[in-house]
């Protein structure tokens, strides 16, 4: 098939590369010339394990093409995917302005015959009907459009494997022809097929992310109990997670969830619920606890550090990504800078994004050990593998004070304390 993706962020670029690798001709439409030129040269712009190699492979095979011309791409395509961002407005509502703007551009250039327009962007219930309405008002007379919802479930850091072998492929549409065409496209992809109506498909993504956020906040709530009572949160949650009805996945305490999905999607489902007259207090509590988790970590720094020099290992909201959107680290660093702390930072891949946020307000290092020199505390905010067996004896010799504040529980407390550290973890 010939298909088009509008947008080249995590969802658009990763999915485009995978479908190009299956042998399809894939157009990717963007609007920033500089970024498009980088993509044409094999630079994926974002960090995602394996993505650069897959992009280079399919550029060489001429199966993936980048353009700013809607006309060039849309007129060739049997299926068009919308993969633009839906960031939160100030009131938490999903900002759909980009979705509707690209919808107008798609509608103008539809070819004669049938085109399936499928929204992969995370959008509230009813959005795809609005997309269909916009296209039908402006499309060429000989063009026919069927609108579908095909939500994505990618995790940054494992996006390629999640695209190739997802838990499920959701296709929502009111047209059997649209369903058949999307199922045919996804034939090489693993996972159970869920074929449903538009509204259900739209709500599935929000429901999934709300559930994941709830598990994280629940784990953090229990960690608060443990810190007050002397219980060990890891033992508690290990035991609870053995219940097959619950499971341990995402039941991990820490500094709170971040990234481009969970924060905005929890806000959006709350706002949508309130507009429908639904009591959303449960999800409001999830969001509140998430903010408390990062404040709890910040409080440990303020309470336990005698000096003003703080070193951070890990800034991205999770390992294997350079994404710092809504990352708890950004809030924590900003709060410390306001109190005149000196901050030094190491992260394997996220430093460039952090520099855009803080410029020269903090010090950046390419080596974790250089980061901790003369530090009064080492704070761990992302559980990168390279931290798990770091030379802590060396770390101690470089620091002013042997203090580690671990927001991800990556070390065994007894082991670290035997090395002479004051070790403060989460819920232990």
Structure, explained:
The protein has 428 residues and is of the alpha/beta class. The chain folds into two domains: 2-196, Rossmann fold (3-Layer(aba) Sandwich), CATH 3.40.50; 212-424, Rossmann fold, CATH 3.40.50.720. Helix content is 45%, strand content 16%. It has 18 helices and 14 strands. The chain has helices spanning 10-21, 33-40, 51-60, 70-74, 97-108, 127-138, 159-164, 176-185, 198-229, 233-241, 262-275, 281-304, 328-338, 351-358, 368-371, 385-388, 392-398, 413-418, and strands at 2-6, 25-29, 64-67, 79-82, 113-119, 143-149, 168-173, 192-196, 309-313, 342-346, 363-365, 377-380, 403-406, 422-424. Helix 1 packs across helix 3 (51-60), helix 5 (97-108) packs parallel to helix 6 and helix 9 (198-229) packs across helix 11 (262-275). The radius of gyration is 23 Å and the shape is globular. The model has no long low-confidence stretch (mean pLDDT 96).
CATH architecture of the largest domain: 3-Layer(aba) Sandwich
* Number of spatially distinct domains: 2
In CATH, what is the homologous superfamily of the largest domain? Answer: NAD(P)-binding Rossmann-like Domain
Helicity range: 40-55%
The beta-strand count equals 14
């Amino acid at each position: 098939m010939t298909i088009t993706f509008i947008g080249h962020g995590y969802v658009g670029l990763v999915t485009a590369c995978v479908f190009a690798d299956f042998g399809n001709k894939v157009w990717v439409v963007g609007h920033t010339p500089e970024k498009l030129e980088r993509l044409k040269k094999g630079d994926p712009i974002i960090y995602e394990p394996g993505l650069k190699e897959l992009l280079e492979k399919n550029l060489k095979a001429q199966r993936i093409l980048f353009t700013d011309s809607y006309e060039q791409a849309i007129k060739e395509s049997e299926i068009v995917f919308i993969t633009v961002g839906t960031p939160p407005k100030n009131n938490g509502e999903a900002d759909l302005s980009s979705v509707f703007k690209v919808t107008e551009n798609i509608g103008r250039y539809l070819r004669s015959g049938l085109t399936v327009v499928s929204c992969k962007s995370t959008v509230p219930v009813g959005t795809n009907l609005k997309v269909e309405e916009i296209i039908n008002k402006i499309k060429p007379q000989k063009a026919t459009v069927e609108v579908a919802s095909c939500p994505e479930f990618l995790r940054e850091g494992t996006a390629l494997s999640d695209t190739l072998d997802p838990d499920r492929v959701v296709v929502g549409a009111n047209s059997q022809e649209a369903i058949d065409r999307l199922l045919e496209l996804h034939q090489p992809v693993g996972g159970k097929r869920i074929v449903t109506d538009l509204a259900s498909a739209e709500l599935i993504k929000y429901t999934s992310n709300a559930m994941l956020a709830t598990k994280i906040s629940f784990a953090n709530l229990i960690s608060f109990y443990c810190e007050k009572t002397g219980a060990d949160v890891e033992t508690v949650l290990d035991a609870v997670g053995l219940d097959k009805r619950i499971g341990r996945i995402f039941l991990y305490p820490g500094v709170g969830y971040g990234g481009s999905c969970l924060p905005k999607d929890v806000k959006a489902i709350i706002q949508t619920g309130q507009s429908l007259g639904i009591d959303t207090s449960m999800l409001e509590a999830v969001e509140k606890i998430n903010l408390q988790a990062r404040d709890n970590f910040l409080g440990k720094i303020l309470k336990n550090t005698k000096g003003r020099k703080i070193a951070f290992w890990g800034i991205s909201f999770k390992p294997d990504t350079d994404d710092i959107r809504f990352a708890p680290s950004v809030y924590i660093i900003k709060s410390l800078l306001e109190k005149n702390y000196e901050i030094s930072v190491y992260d394997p891949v996220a430093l460039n994004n952090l520099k855009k946020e803080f410029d020269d307000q903090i010090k950046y290092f390419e080596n974790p050990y250089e980061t901790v020199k003369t530090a009064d505390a080492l704070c761990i905010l992302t559980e990168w593998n390279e931290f798990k067996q770091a030379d802590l004896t060396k770390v101690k010799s470089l620091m002013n004070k042997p203090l580690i504040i671990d927001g991800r529980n990556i070390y065994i407390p007894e082991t670290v304390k035997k090395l002479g550290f004051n070790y403060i973890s989460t819920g232990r």
